TrEMBL record:
Catalyzes the pyridoxal-phosphate-dependent breakdown of phosphoethanolamine, converting it to ammonia, inorganic phosphate and acetaldehyde. The gene is ETNPPL. It comes from Myotis lucifugus (Little brown bat). Its cofactor is pyridoxal 5'-phosphate. It catalyses: phosphoethanolamine + H2O = acetaldehyde + NH4(+) + phosphate. InterPro entries: Aminotrans_3 (IPR005814), Aminotrans_3_PPA_site (IPR049704), PyrdxlP-dep_Trfase (IPR015424), PyrdxlP-dep_Trfase_major (IPR015421), PyrdxlP-dep_Trfase_small (IPR015422). Its main location: mitochondrion. GO terms for biological process: cellular response to glucocorticoid stimulus; ceramide phosphoethanolamine catabolic process; lipid homeostasis; phospholipid transfer to membrane; response to food. This is Ethanolamine-phosphate phospho-lyase. GO terms for cellular component: membrane; mitochondrion. The keyword Membrane does not apply. It is found in: Mitochondrion. Residues 460-480 have a biased composition (Basic and acidic residues). Homotetramer. Its EC number is 4.2.3.2.
Length: 500
């Protein structure tokens, strides 16, 4: 067994000792994952789940080359970056080679939040400006400085928006302010940013930065229209600010054709600062800020040293190097293009079949399915989305729903996701939507998803507020259970030792 405790005891200990604001997936019926490999995760009973959400395990869970690189370096040396070491410079060199030439200076951190916090410091030091323009529904990290610029967070809490923060409308042509029927949504959304800058100037404020994910993830898998970033960068730079591209979720080849998502917008668009994290270490905490020489020199001129105990240490750098090698050697960008394209095609066919699917959007292995109650008004099908992710879990497929209305099914799996996985995912989704739509009939808005809705999961003893369709999975035996649930003797002995 891979467990120290029974699932029930783990849950009880978690409730007792882990802060209540740390939420778990499928809170009404959590899954205890004890091991994972490639795009599959296994619970304590050996049940196999298809992982469609862990973009951190970029090259596949527990990739042996990543594990080997970490172990090899751990045995030799791990220390901070004040000593000369080849790994950090080799990684910086390799990373910069993936970016446009002017992005040539790296600062290493341990998380995406740290990277974005540092990016803000760089931007503010550059011209001495303070204000930040952020997109509605954006999430940029959990530090105080980032909650302040993350409407996804501050709109939910009691905090009011700070005076130095300006929120621009999300450039979403499906359910945003300007849609696909607008003659020029690109300019319309960019003009909103221009207006914000003009208004800020009128009030004596100065823009330090515009920050955006190259594709918005928590905000509902939104792909900005081509040309939007170019126009925004022009307005922001004219105001003395810089453009920060947050690639923490969407970098490292997820979009397939390009290594960075911002590159989809054309070669004439180069951000001033790029932040990255999650997939960079395949689960090992390593992140980075890359910027221009000019911005780096301005930051240095403050006289303050940048020191980060763990940032870019030899082990983290070795892991990150292994990830780069695997992306290349296993042609994971090619895989993202092929499998992502295939999956998107299958999903578009599903859209023609299911009234609940309002939109399917995506690039490579970054895909969103916007569920709606009616196509014309695009009323978000929030309860239905929650229902679907719970039913998918029963089918052993891990999905999540996000976006401002929590109605967008998010797909961002490890990059080794296969066409068979894509087909399996879509077949399960098809079955669940068919049953749900039959239950809803022709009047989705008039129906409340209840315990009597066919295909609805049973009501759990302890309901969780975020969910409308919770329940325990069917207890049927999965043929892969025995095969895949076995842990090594080493693990089982360790577990015994720890128990005593
Ligand atoms: C777009 C984006 N930026 C930054 C972060 C923060 O990264 P971390 O959780 O590693 O601090 C996240 C985390 O989800 C994110 O989605």
């Amino acid at each position: 067994m891979c467990e120290l405790y029974s699932k029930q005891d783990t849950l009880a200990l978690r409730k007792k000792h882990i802060g209540p604001s740390c939420k778990i997936f499928f809170a009404a019926d959590p899954i205890k994952i004890v091991r994972a490999q490639r795009q599959y995760m296994f619970d304590e009973k050996g049940e196999q789940y298809l992982d469609c959400i862990n973009n951190v395990a970029h090259v596949g869970h527990c990739h042996p080359e990543v594990v080997k690189a970490a172990m090899k370096q751990m045995e030799l040396l791990n220390t901070n970056s004040r000593f000369l070491h080849d790994n950090i410079v080799e990684y910086a060199k390799r990373l910069c080679a993936t970016l446009p030439e002017k992005l040539s200076v790296c600062y290493f951190t341990n998380s995406g939040s740290e990277a974005n916090d540092l990016a803000l410091r760089l931007a503010r030091q550059f011209r001495g400006h303070q204000d930040v323009i952020t997109l509605d529904h954006a999430y940029h990290g959990h530090l105080t400085s980032l909650i302040e610029i993350s409407p996804y967070k501050f709109r939910k809490g009691k905090d009011v928006k700070k005076e130095f923060v300006h929120v621009a409308p999300i450039p979403d042509t499906y359910r945003g302010k300007y849609r696909e029927d607008h003659p020029d949504p690109t300019s319309a959304y960019a003009d909103e940013v221009k207006k914000i800058i003009e208004e800020a100037h009128k009030n004596g404020r100065k823009i330090a930065a515009f920050i955006a994910e190259s594709m918005q993830s928590c905000g509902g898998q939104v792909i900005p229209p081509t040309g939007y970033f170019q126009k925004v960068a022009e307005y922001v730079r004219a105001a003395g600010g810089v453009f920060i591209a947050d690639e923490v979720q969407v970098g490292f080849g997820r979009v397939g054709k390009h290594f960075w998502s911002f590159q989809m917008h054309g070669e004439d668009f180069v951000p001033d600062i790029v932040t990255m994290g999650k997939p960079m270490g395949n689960g090992h905490p390593v992140a980075c800020v890359v910027t221009t020489k000019e911005i780096a020199e301005a930051f240095c001129s403050s006289g303050m040293e940048y020191f980060n105990t763990y940032g870019g240490n030899p082990v983290s750098s070795a892991v990150a190097l292994a990830v780069l090698d695997i992306i290349e050697n296993e042609d994971l960008q090619g895989n993202a293009t092929r499998v992502g394209g295939y999956l998107t095609e299958l999903l578009k066919k599903q859209k023609a079949k299911h009234t609940l699917i309002g939109d399917v959007r995506g690039v490579g292995l970054f895909i969103g399915i916007d569920l709606v109650k009616d196509h014309q008004r695009r009323t978000p099908a929030t309860a239905e989305a929650q229902h679907v992710i719970y039913k998918m879990k029963e089918k052993r497929v891990l999905l999540s729903a996000d976006g401002p209305h929590r109605n967008v099914l998010k797909i961002k799996p490890p990059m080794c996701f296969s066409e068979e996985d894509a087909k399996f995912l879509v077949d399960q989704l098809d079955g669940i939507l068919t049953v749900l739509e039959e239950a809803i009939g022709t009047n989705p808005e008039g129906v409340t998803i209840s315990e009597n809705t066919p295909g609805r999961t049973k009501k759990p003893k302890e309901a969780h507020v975020e969910l409308l369709s919770e329940g325990a999975p069917e207890q049927k035996e999965n043929p892969s259970q025995k095969r895949n649930g076995l842990c090594t003797d080493k693990q089982s002995q360790l577990s015994k030792r720890l128990k005593t």
